[in-house]
Every structure is written in C-alpha cells, then in structure tokens.
Specification:
The chain is of the alpha/beta class. The protein has two domains: about 30-60 and about 305-405, Aspartate Aminotransferase, domain 1; about 70-305, Type I PLP-dependent aspartate aminotransferase-like (Major domain) (Aspartate Aminotransferase, domain 2), CATH 3.40.640. It contains 16 helices and 13 strands. The strands form three sheets. It has a seven-stranded mixed beta sheet, with helices on both faces. A three-stranded mixed beta sheet has the order 1-2-11. Helix 9 links the parallel strand 7 (about 215-220) and strand 8. Helix 5 packs parallel to helix 6 (about 150-160), helix 13 (about 310-325) runs parallel beside helix 15 (about 390-405) and helix 14 packs across helix 15. The protein is globular. The structure holds pyridoxal-5'-phosphate. Pyridoxal-5'-phosphate binds near residues 123, 192 and 196.
Length: about 400
C-alpha cells in the first residue's frame, strides 16, 4: 500500500529547473515501474524474502553474506542491549560517555583485524566521508581506484585535496601516478577490499610493496571483504597474507557481514586517538545505538567461533561463478568473492530483472548513473543460506530469459 500526501498538489518546485532532476524524472517514469524500487518487504533481507504481495522469493539483494541477521545470538544480544541501555546512545560519546558494548565492539574489531584500535561511527558511508574529510586537506593528493565507492569520493570532496584516479585494479597505473605525486604534503591511496559493483579484489600485496618506494598513506575499505574473503573471514590482509599494520587506515562497515548498521575505522592507536577526540562525524554525532553495537559484536563472535561459515560462503561463491560461466553469462572480473555482476546492456538488465521478479527471484540492475552507460549489469549478492539448487535455478532462469529475447525485443 502506498501512502499519499495530505498536501494539495503544488505548483512546480524549483527542482524541476535542475537538469539532473528532469533527467531523473524521465528515467523514473520510463523504467521505475519495472524495478520495484522502495517496495516494502515483509521479512528480513535474507536468502529468501517476502514481497509486498506476500510471495516468498529467492533474494540476491541483501548484504547479509553469512546469513546472521536472524541468528538467535545476534537477536538476543540486540534485545538485551535495548532492555539494559535503551534504544539510543543518547548523545555524542565524547561528551556523555558510552556503554561497555561500544568499548567491547571496538576492541573486538581491532583484535579480529590484528591492529591496535578501532572506532565506530553511525554510518559506513559517513565514516568514509568524515575520516577522509578530516584527515586530509588542500595540500594533499588522494589517489583512488577508478571504481571506488561514492563515500570515498564524497570524503575527498570535503577534504579539498587534489583527486586523481588510477585504472581499476591496475597497480602499474597507480605507480605511474605515484611517480607524479611530488609537490604534495601527504599522498593517500584508497582501494576497496572487494569492489561492490564488480566482485573483484585488488592485488594488495603489490600495492603494499609500493610503500617501500613511495611515501604514501594506504587506506582499504573492507565493506564487502570483512567476513567474506581470507580463510577465516578476516578480509583482504588475510587473503594476501599481508601484515595488517602495513595498511595505515582500515575502514569497514557494520552493515554487511556484521548485520548491524554503522562503520568503523581501525589502525594504529595514535590514528584512533586523533579521530576519537577530533573527527567531526564522531565528535558531533550521537553514538552508535547500543543494540547496533551488540548485534555487530555478536556477529563478530560467531564468525570468530565458526570459520566454517566463511568456508561455506566461499564454496557457494565458487559454485555460482562456475555455473554462471558455464551458462555463458558474462561475470567480468568477478571471482573469489560473493558479489557477482552479470554484464548486459542496460535495457536487457532491466527487462531481465523484471522477468526474474516474475519468476520469484529478486536481484537489482545497476544502471547509469551508478555505473557508466556501457557497464550496466545485474548484481547478485550471495548469502550463505542460498542452496546450491537455488543458485542453479536462478542462473538457469536468467540464461533462459536471455536466450528467449532477441535484439529487436530489447530495442522495442
Ligand atoms: C565499499 C563501500 N564502502 C562504504 C559503504 C557504506 O557503508 P554503509 O552502507 O554501511 O553506510 C558501502 C555501502 O554499500 C560500500 O559498498
């Protein structure tokens, strides 16, 4: 059911004169109805979900990689936290103190990653914006992978630093750019542990090796790599057997494998001390709700106790990739992670998602402007609880749909 505004319809607001708004309005009118954007869901966002119409569908649109959001320990921890501390942290932690849960979570994140300290923020996106915006300034250079997440780009904008991108996962291009980085005060290099649109990972060992030749600060965003890669889910440093202290700024989210909400920055105790007393998005923001801290802490405990969950996810990821490739689908550079793009032209991606929805599979197309016009795709996030049969059925449905449509169908 859709809510209707009580306000009488109003004359054009000024937004209609913004070109971006007009482009968006037109696209929404043309394709919005096919995609189910903002449709209420009547269950958790797991390997299955219940739609607005009450239908149970296979779901590939959530980040709960290890299938923990309904784990009894996670739910109980959140309930206990609400019962004991209430629903809110109540104020900024700097000026009103914090709960033992905040401290336990931050220590647990640091221990899990093998670094000295960690600090949590109420949003993963916000953690990148405020950390980069606070630590870097006009006399600095920030080099980032061409496919870096929007939150990093927003942080760079805020910092006022000069921004240059290097080709996706191209260490040689990064080195070229580092050679040209002479007059700057600090140079920051930012990469992701797993690229959320492409499902691939950078060669972290090669990037760390560049630190011996060039003076730069290295930041890794582990939003999609924590809990998913590395033998025990400790992320990209574990996967490459790189010592965690070789990375200056670890960043990650609580919202994906840790089934909560929020973000963290981790590393040397001086970095965290500096941020804890000064970083605007931490200092001037109410702390993480205790229930969110408790849920993330419980999830981290489970991953630590049961690395077999990570192994199962990785097995199913390999299966997905093999089946997709065998069906002739284009997975690009994806591999070794639970994120799978299937590249199609934009019109085909939209129609295929609509057809999948009709057949009981929920996955979303990624289209312009989220990616460039010639890089549209359907993105599948794997969940540990997906069965091998559900993966096979989905790939078969997609392959059948694509072989049933012809070029003229797509152009129509
Ligand atoms: C690479 C990356 N960094 C940061 C974020 C922001 O995290 P959050 O969704 O927890 O705000 C995301 C979210 O999808 C992401 O993919």
């Amino acid at each position: 059911m859709h809510m209707h505004s009580n306000f009488p319809s109003q004359p054009d607001s000024g937004w209609y004169h913004d070109r971006r708004y007009r482009v968006f309005k037109q696209a929404k009118a043309e394709i919005g109805h096919l995609l189910g954007y903002f449709e209420p869901r009547h269950s958790h966002n797991g390997h299955m979900m219940q739609t607005e119409a009450g239908k149970e569908v296979i779901n590939f649109s959530g980040y709960d990689y290890l299938s923990l959001t309904r784990h009894p320990d996670v739910q109980q921890a959140a309930l206990d936290a609400v019962a004991r501390f209430g629903s809110s942290a109540g104020a900024s932690r700097l000026v009103s103190g914090e709960t033992p849960l905040h401290q336990a979570l931050e220590q647990r994140i640091a221990d899990f990653l093998g670094v000295e300290r960690a600090l949590t923020f109420v949003s993963g996106h916000g953690a990148n914006v405020t950390t980069i915006g606070f630590l870097f300034g006009k006399s600095d250079l920030i080099l980032h992978d061409a496919y870096i997440h929007n939150s990093v780009l927003e942080g760079i904008k805020l910092s006022g630093a000069e921004r240059r991108s290097f080709n996706h996962n191209d260490v040689q291009d990064l080195e070229e750019k580092l050679k040209q980085a002479r007059p700057f005060k600090h140079v920051l290099v930012v990469v992701e542990g797993v690229y959320s649109m492409d499902g691939d990972a950078p060669d972290l060992r090669a990037i760390v090796a560049l630190k011996a030749k060039y003076d730069f600060v290295l930041m890794v965003d582990e939003a999609h790599s924590l809990g998913t890669i590395g033998e025990t889910g400790r992320g990209i440093a574990e996967m490459y057997r790189v010592p965690p202290e070789a990375i200056d700024i670890w960043m990650g989210t609580l919202s994906k494998s840790l089934v909560s909400c929020g973000g963290y920055v981790a590393g040397h105790r001086d970095l965290i001390d500096f941020l804890q007393y000064n970083c605007p998005g931490f200092v001037f923001s109410t702390g993480l709700p205790p229930a969110n801290a408790a849920a993330a802490l419980a999830a981290l405990d489970i991953i630590d106790r049961a690395p077999s969950l990570v192994e199962e996810l990785q097995d199913k990821s390999r299966h997905f990739l093999m089946q997709a490739q065998a069906a002739g689908l284009n997975t690009g550079t994806a591999g070794g992670t639970p994120v799978f793009p299937i590249y199609l032209d934009q019109q085909a991606a939209i129609l295929a998602c609509s057809a999948l929805r009709e057949s009981g599979v929920n996955a979303f197309p990624i289209i312009y402007p989220a990616v460039s016009k010639n890089a549209a795709r359907i993105r599948f996030f794997l969940n540990r609880a997906h069965s091998y049969a559900q993966i096979d059925t989905t790939i078969q449905l997609l392959a059948d749909f694509l072989s049933s449509v012809t070029e003229p169908d797509l152009a129509a």
